[in-house]
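[retry 2/3] HTH-type transcriptional regulator msmR: previous attempt timed out, resubmitting with same input.
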Amino acid sequence: MTTIKDIADKSNVSPATVSRVLNNDESLSVAEETRQRILDVANSLDYKTMSVRKKQIDKKNVTYKVGIFLCQSLEEELSDPYFLSIRQGVEHQCKELGMECTEIYRIFNVELSKINEELDGLIVIGKIDTEVIKQLSEKIKHFVYVDYSPNEHLYDSVTFDFKNATNLALDHLFQLGYKRIGYIGGHQAEHTKGMKRKFEDDRYIYYKQTMQQLNQYNPDHEFIGEFTMSEGYRLMTEAIQQGNLPEAFFIASDPMAIGALRALQERHIKVPDDIAIVSFDDVEMAKFASCPLSTVHIPTELMGRTGVKLLMDRLKGRETPLKVTVPTSFVQRESCGANK
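[retry 2/3] HTH-type transcriptional regulator msmR: success.
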């Protein structure tokens, strides 16, 4: 490493003079030619003063503060591990990058005026109305959406291809010879302060399109409620009581599928012998269900981690919004009947 003495030897001045010049000592009386010669030698040797080195170290060690903004209540998050896994991915990646992630806000009980203005960025998990984000943008500059992409021209986002993921489930059932395939799912909701705006779930939209194209669509075989385990139980019970069950069901979340399994078991309807099931998400409980679930794997923790990486990239200066689409895959277990 270059020292002051090295610069002094090449500049033909004393080390004290070099030190005072490099530290901008205004009380030093020295010829401008000598001052410039010292600066030129220091630059050629890539010498940096202590204050410059300290600034560089401080810059490298800067700690960013990140908040998480959720559309789920704690009870909803615990009942559906899908969103919990995304949040854990955010927290794990922040920890690995040395980012502070201690601020967690839930839209149902947060006062937007009390959001910490010192946050460097916010990870938004779920479908939250952009009007809420516009209010928050008065306090916080950088946002990344995870599991939603409201406007790819304005916001960074991480999501997956719902159409491809739905086709993975349906194609698997078609390949096994099933034709009459029912659907159990819930409504999607965009959350704003104090209310939800419900709309058709993408999985249902693509299920319906596919079944219509194959002339196999039957509205009597679709059952829609909320994305909870108890609703999966209720909707399957409704399907059983209605009679004329389809050969298989595509169920839009693993918790709903587990509730549906319970309803079938209580009525001694065997899975997959009497009816096949494929579901969606591949949360950890799917492999431990009473009949392990064949399901579409969504890399939820990766989605959370990727959101943090996009935010870090923004904080380092990137200006163009990016939308990342993570891949999905099908996990075959016993519930679809392929292992019989």
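[retry 2/3] HTH-type transcriptional regulator msmR: DSSP finds twelve helices and 14 strands in the chain.
[retry 2/3] clearing retry counter.
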